[in-house]
Amino acid sequence: NPVMQLELKLVNYSNKDRLLIARDITQTIKLQRMRRDFVANVSHELRTPLTVLRGYLESFTVESEPEMWRQALPVMQGQTQRMHYMIKDLLALSQLETGEKPLQQRPTDVAKLLSSIVADAQRLEHFRNHQITLHCDSKKWLLADTDELRSAVSNLVYNAVKYTPAETAITVRWSVENAGGIIEVQDAGEGIAQHHLERLTERFYRVDSGRARETGGTGLGLAIVKHVLQRHQAELVIDSELGVGTRFRCVFTNNSLMDKIDV
Ligand code: ADP
């Protein structure tokens, strides 16, 4: 990894002098590489389910045995669903990145929001009697875009359910400390090795790609969480220990905190 990339240009300054102009193009090259990788990743991610669908469609005829259809249909539905989620997440991410959709901040009752997210998570197909406990240590509200906040926290809670074995304990907590308001999602799963943590919020980054695909993940969830938090001047802090579990904390500044309002 080069520290700095320079573009050098030699121009005639006068009859006997020449001028060497150096331009720092490190950032431009990095952006070009990211764009290239992104297009390659999207193509790859969409091609995989499409290949499965095509394989089935090409081998089937109207005379195929009903048993073959019975086996193939759930797989085909699953792959179509995967493409659907991928495109939905890509669009959400692109809207967040371009700032196309303005942030609609309004007073948000965090306790109420978290309890509805937990209730939804308990209806997930991956949910296998996980023990989700909700602690609301603070009565403060947040000035936030409620829909975006819901999507960010849901991603964290769904991940805790998806990537941990049945009956794992998961804690969701809302608290206020000196640093500000903290929404925390902690699981007692297998944990994530330290060297993965730094790259976890990159698009399409997965710790175990086979397992993530099995769970129907798009690899975009944490990238969405990071963007949503950035738009709220909030920060995502991830701690994990192998064999102990993982904790995701969304830290909001004191400026976003507000007292409960009566409606
Ligand atoms: P995906 O759609 O694959 O779930 P995410 O961006 O949400 O993508 O997560 C990226 C990767 O981080 C996942 O593929 C998984 O390997 C890992 N991960 C996320 N949350 C957890 C968790 N609570 N425990 C263990 N691994 C996790």
TrEMBL record:
Q: Please list the GO biological process terms of this entry.
A: cellular response to phosphate starvation; phosphate ion transport
Chief subcellular location equals: membrane
Give the species this sequence originates from.
Answer: Methylophaga frappieri (strain ATCC BAA-2434 / DSM 25690 / JAM7)
Identify a single GO molecular function assigned to this protein.
phosphoprotein phosphatase activity
Top-level class of the enzyme under EC nomenclature? transferase
Query: What does the record give as the reaction this protein catalyses?
Result: ATP + protein L-histidine = ADP + protein N-phospho-L-histidine
Question: In what residue span(s) does the Histidine kinase domain sit?
Answer: 41-256
Task: Report the domain of life of the source organism.
Answer: Bacteria
Lineage of origin: Bacteria, Pseudomonadati, Pseudomonadota, Gammaproteobacteria, Thiotrichales
Chain's role: Member of the two-component regulatory system PhoR/PhoB involved in the phosphate regulon genes expression. PhoR may function as a membrane-associated protein kinase that phosphorylates PhoB in response to environmental signals.
Q: Which UniProt keywords apply?
A: ATP-binding, Cell membrane, Kinase, Membrane, Nucleotide-binding, Phosphate transport, Phosphoprotein, Transferase, Transmembrane, Transmembrane helix, Transport, Two-component regulatory system
Question: Which Enzyme Commission number(s) are on file for it?
Answer: 2.7.13.3
**What is the protein name for this chain?**
Phosphate regulon sensor protein PhoR
Would you name any one GO CC term?
plasma membrane
Q: In which compartments does the protein localize?
A: Cell membrane
